Amino acid sequence: MNAEEIISVAKRVPYVPGGRDLDGWDCYGSVRWLYHQFTGVLMPEFPALSHKDALVTQRAAWSLHDYVDECNFQPLALAAQYKGRRWVHTGFVLPDRRIIHAYDDSSKTTIHRRSMFEMLAPVTKYYQWKDQDGHPDCLS
Predict the structure, then answer these.
(1) For 1-37, what is the HEC assignment?
(2) Strand partners, 81
(3) Which one is the CATH code of 3-129: 3.40.50.720, 3.90.1720.10, 1.10.10.10, 3.40.50.300?
(4) How confident is the prediction along the chain (140 residues), in pLDDT tens digits per residue?
(5) What is each CA distance from 84 to 66, 87, 118, in whole angstroms?
């Protein structure tokens, strides 16, 4: 699939807490699928994540830090949102620099401009995936 087809498929997927496939996904499930489609890299699996379950979400965030480095806003970056030090939401930066994410159970997967996405939480950080040798594997 090309980028437009990937985005078209993703936009039709509803938000489902803990979902990890095209029948429905949460924010991490959407990012995991999108990252795999765009890069071929399959991110690790975690149990259902919810902003309502801080402990499970934080454990997932801590384990992801072994695989990523913080980077500037750029295509193919992971966009992580925080309230204080707590990870609460994630999205994926598309090649055209918009951010796609599954936000809540009242909507399907959504695309926002960076400024709108960053209004959803007090802090947004961007991360690039490391390759198997531990080197950044994102566009510069």
Answers:
(1) CCHHHHHHHHHCCEECCCCEECCEECHHHHHHHHHHH
(2) 89, 124
(3) 3.90.1720.10
(4) 999 999 999 999 999 888 889 999 988 899 999 999 999 988 887 666 555 666 666 666 666 777 889 999 999 999 999 888 888 889 999 999 999 999 877 778 999 999 999 999 999 999 998 766 555 555 44
(5) 21, 8, 14
Element (H, E) at 114: helix 114-118
For the chain, the structural domain boundaries read 3-129
Cα distance from N-terminal residue to C-terminal residue, the chain? 23
Distance CA 133, CA 6 (A): 28
Return d(Cα 1, Cα 36) in angstroms, integer.
Answer: 12
pTM: 0.84
How many residues are there in the chain? 140
Question: Residue with structure tokens 């309502």?
Answer: 52
